[in-house]
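Lay summary. Proteins are chains of building blocks that fold into shapes, and those shapes determine what they do. In this project we predict the shape from the chain. Here is one chain we studied, written as its sequence of building blocks.
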Amino acid sequence: CKGVDPEYLEAEIFGGKGVKSKLEECIGGTIVFEEITFMPLALQRKLFEVLSERRIPGSTISLDVRPIFTT
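And here is the predicted shape, written in a compact code that computers can read:
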């Protein structure tokens, strides 16, 4: 996450503009977030909420992913 544009990172994780999210691509599997401490706090909060609710805002797809976070 270090040195990556926050807007690009958010679009990659949650999708947008016709792009499938990384979370959707990992349904039924594991997703690894390396160096999570470098991710902006607002994005960490949104990620936590999405993983807690198991749903991406605006989507009807249920997220069944196993997240792994490293620092």
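What the prediction tells us: Helices lie at 6-14, 22-25, 41-53.
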